[in-house]
Amino acid sequence: MIGTGAETCSLLKGGCNPERTVDDGESWALHRHGNEGQPRVYRGTCPVDSLALLTIGLIVVCCVAVALGVIVPELYTVAIGVCFRAGVGFFAAGLLTLLLAPLRVIRKEDSLVLEFPFHRHTVPLCEVLEVAALSYCWEFFDLLNRWNCLPCGSNARFFCGLPSWSRVCCAVVTGRCFWSFIFCVEDPIEFLLDCQRPLDLNSRFVTVQKVLVRKGESLDSPKVNTFPRGSGLHVLEQRGRRIRVKFECGAGEGWMSYINVAGRFLIVRRASSTTPSPGLIGASTISGSYGTAIELPAVTEPDGGE
C-alpha cells in the first residue's frame, strides 16, 4: 500500500502533488449503471499494430540477409541462419504479445482484475498510483518521467503488457515494482468514464481546446456554436461523457463532450492550491486540474472536439 506522505512524495518528481481523496469515487462506477455492487467488465483487445511491426521487422531482416547471401555467396549459410533466428524470434515475440494482452479487465469496488490467457492479476485500488490513457509513445515516457521510473528516473517499475500506437491504450501505474500494466480495451472511453468520478456541478471549468456545442444531447442534434480554448463554463448536467453547459460569455446553454473520442479531456477545473482535486480509485492527484488520476494532455482539433 502506498502512503500519502513522504513515502509517496519520493516516488514523484518535483512539482507533483500526491494528495488523495478517494471517498465515494472508488464505488461510483459500480453505481452509475444502477447495478449496485456488480463489477464492470471490459473486453480486452490484442495490439494488432504491435504484431504488424514485428512482421515488418522480420521481413526486413530476412530480405537483407537473403540479399547479402546472393551478393556474397560465402555469406549464404550465415544468411539462412539469420533468417531462421529471426523467424524464431518473431514467433516468440508474437506469442508473448498474445499472452500479455488481457482478455478481460474487471472493475470491482475495491480492485482492478486483469484476466490473461493463463493467469489473472488483481490490483487493489489502494495501490493504484495513476490510470492513464496513452495515444503516442512519448506519452508513455512522460508517464515514466512523472513517476521517476527507469530509464527516466531512479525507481524500478516493470510493466506487463504491450502498448498500441494505433489506438488509445490504458496504463495502470501501481506502487509495486512488479507489476504495472498496459492494455487495450474495446471501448477505452467507457473505461475512462467508469474510472472518472462525476463532475462537480458547483465548480467552474475552462475549455482546454476548441469545443463544439450542440442543442441536444445527441451528436446528431443541431450545432449551437463553437467556443475557443480558455472559455469559462459551468456544468449543469452530466450524462456519460456528454454534459449540458452554460458558458460565462452569455452565449446560452448546450451540450458538449467533456472527453473526446481519442480519450482526451476537453475541460479542466481550476482548483485552489490548498484544496486537492478529486481523485479516483485510490489514485494520486498528479496535477492541479480536473481529471487528476487519468492524465490526458490536450490535443488540438481545428473543428472542435466531440
Keywords:
elongated, 306 residues, eight-stranded mixed sheet, 3 domains, alpha+beta, 6 helices, SH3 type barrels, 25% helix
Mean pLDDT: 71
- In one word, what is the shape? elongated
Report the strand count: 15
The computed structural class is: alpha+beta
User: DSSP strand (E) fraction?
Assistant: 25-35%
Specify the helix fraction band. Answer: 25-40%
The major pleated sheet works out as:
8 strands, mixed
Q: What is the succession of H and E elements?
A: HHEHHEEEEHEEEHEEEEEEE
Number of domains: 3
| Low-pLDDT residue intervals, each spanning 5 or more residues | 1-34, 272-303
Number of separate helices:
6
Radius of gyration: 23 Å
Distance between the termini: 37 Å
Structural commentary:
With 306 residues, the chain is α+β, with helices and mostly antiparallel strands. The protein folds into three domains: 48-100; 102-193, no CATH class; 197-276 and 290-295, SH3 type barrels (Roll), CATH 2.30.30.40. It has helices spanning 6-9, 25-32, 48-71, 76-99, 137-146, 188-195; strands at 40-45, 104-107, 111-115, 120-124, 128-134, 158-160, 169-174, 178-185, 204-207, 211-214, 223-227, 232-239, 242-247, 253-257, 267-269. The strands form three sheets. Strands 1, 2, 3, 4, 5, 6, 7 and 8 form an eight-stranded mixed beta sheet that branches. A five-stranded antiparallel beta sheet has the order 14-13-12-9-15, with no helix packed on it. Strand 12 and strand 13 (242-247) form a beta hairpin. The radius of gyration is 23 Å and the shape is elongated. The two termini are 37 Å apart. The model is unreliable at 1-34 and 272-303 (pLDDT under 50).
